[in-house]
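hey m, so remember when u said the tokens were messed up on ur end? i reran from scratch. heres the input so u can diff it against urs
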Amino acid sequence: SPDGATTLFQTLGKIWVADADGGNPRRLTEQDDHSELFPSFSEDGERIVYTTWNDRDLGSVRVVSAKGGAGRVLTPNPGHYVEPRFSPDGERVVYRKITGGYLLSGAWSLAPGIYIVPAKGGEPKRVSKSGFNPQFSASGERVLYSSSVEETQLVLRSVSLEGHDERTHLQGAKVTEFNVSPDGRWVAFTEQYNAFVAPFTLTGRTVEIGSETKSIPVRQVSNRAGEFLHWAADGSALHWSHGPTL
């Protein structure tokens, strides 16, 4: 959680919360009608946004109190939804819509991309036709997301809330994940499975970044491996997973 008091995790298709030390684990919801995926706290720690999946009914984006209860659906149509995140003020949610087919139903697969929807529900707006791992900027005025340019290169881009003024901020030849701190001062990234931290400035200039970058200070923070990067609310601490270990 943003204050570091609670651990939020998904296992075997259900979302759980526990004390920071892993004690007192409990289900977030009580339903068994669908799987629960991609949980993420609001910046004030009071709500959790997540996605659902059911082979018959497909998926949705939902919000629930951090204390538990029934999830409230934000998306007006069923679909294939992943990676939801709250805006800093909690008024909006950004998420990615993907396509089905093969093992999953191909229904409701038109117009994939990155969308914004009001946190109280409403009409979603697509802001990018491509990209993944979306998050709001510290000001809440832009949406940051990653894109694969080549098989071995990842870029960090952003667009306005209207889907205009696309900018490329970072590119890394061996980077596999970007995550910008809530205060916008830092960027964490993974390279060769390890986690690194560097200063970040939201400008229109593209910066080459990696473990060997000399133009800006880069610090490795994981000893063996670090994935699924996420920040404390004030940007003072970085968390990651190494296998089953947080």
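this time it looks ok to me. The chain has a mean pLDDT of 95. if urs says something different then somethings off w ur setup not the seq
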